[in-house]
Amino acid sequence: MLHILQDGAPMNIQAIRLFLHVMQRGSLAAGAQQLNMSTSAASRLLSGLERTTGLKLFSRDGHALRPTTEGTQYFNECHRVLVAVDELPRAARRLASGAQSRLTVGSGPRLANSLMIPTIGRFAKRNPDAEIDFTVLQPHEFPRIPNRMDIAVGAMVPQTITSVEASPLFEMPTVAVMRNDHPLARRSTVRAADIAAHKLIATPTGPMREELEKIFRAEGAPFHPQYTASSFEHACSMLLQVGGVMITDPLVPLAIGPRFFALVPLKPLRMVQTSIFTSTLALESRLIDEFKTCLREEARLLETRVASLLGNSDAARIRTSTRSHKKSQLRPSRR
User: Fold this and answer.
1) Domain range spanning residue 37?
2) What pLDDT was estimated at residue 154?
3) According to the model, what pLDDT value does residue 261 have?
4) Burial of 315 by CB count in 10 Å (0-12 exposed, 13-18 middle, 19+ buried)?
5) Residue 92 and residue 89: Cα distance in Å, rounded?
6) Which residues of the chain are under the pLDDT cut of 50?
7) Does the residue 327 lie in any domain?
């Protein structure tokens, strides 16, 4: 049985695993089932963990367990530790096999072609023997970054995800994207009320859809997308065919081909922040540091290209953090 030490005293890792399962699944019975043990044995193991730690992890209301504030905080710490413990066998196997250095990186869909692929190309030129696994992440997957990724890039994650650390990379303005011959294409800015009279393209569900609904509602404009697309890439391609308008940041049309689109800043100006995410447990390796450097170099190029596309508008003055390596405090967002 594997143990770790707390103040010199052994602590049963099986008990910690049980605690995590109970927290994640909401009941002692469900947690016990995950570890193939009886509910009575699980109850004794959980009580032993509380005695060992000196913490009251749950309040008991009949058969129901409700996590205390201490329990919630301890859950975050236990999760971080077990991620590291579970990684040890894989790390040992890699070392024993003499495998090449390998990075696991990921980003949201809108950053895949515009930022991540060019960054991987830049990194590969400097590290031709390094191996890379690249994954396109959906928003709900970002809280699991510590389990899966060395580096991920995307919008901000909730402050409650304590096992993830963020470094700001850049901010991009929200723009209305349309064909060059669209009636709104020559405007210096557009408002939601202007767009409402035209064919609107939006995602069918998700945080961006909810954000758009708020923008239109704030101006008293009707929000009735004539078309929906599950990805921004497909939405951009669709608007070229149907003459519609979509609201996003400039990165997706930039990756497809900026000559096909007109980008008109949304008023009032809204910025979309992008950050580099790493696990708080991860040790800074040479390869991770170099990949971050490549990300910042590519981000500066994107900054220049977007500013050129937007000309002299206020939105062209993009707020970036590409030259700063200072870690930021996470703040809540649903993007």
Assistant:
1) 3-95
2) 86
3) 93
4) buried
5) 5
6) 1-9, 312, 316-335
7) no
On whether both 258 and 276 belong to a single domain, the answer is no
Q: What length is written for the chain? A: 335
CB-based burial of residue 55 (10 Å sphere; 0-12 exposed, 13-18 middle, 19+ buried)? middle
Do the domain assignments include residue 332? no
Per the prediction, the chain carries an average pLDDT of 81
> What pLDDT does residue 319 have?
47
CB 151 within 8 A of CB 278: yes
Whether 167 is in a domain gets the answer: yes
Q: What CA–CA distance (Å, rounded) separates 54 from 206?
A: 42
Contacts 24+ apart (CB under 8 A), 20-23: 20/75, 20/78, 20/79, 20/82, 22/46, 22/58, 22/65, 23/67, 23/71, 23/72, 23/75
The pTM of this model reads: 0.63
- The Cα–Cα gap between 149 and 155 comes to 15
Per residue in 265-298, pLDDT (tens digit) is 999 888 888 999 887 766 668 888 999 999 999 9
Domains of the chain: total: 3
Residue 260 falls within a domain, yes or no?
Answer: yes
Residue pair 3/10 in contact by the 8 Å Cβ criterion: yes
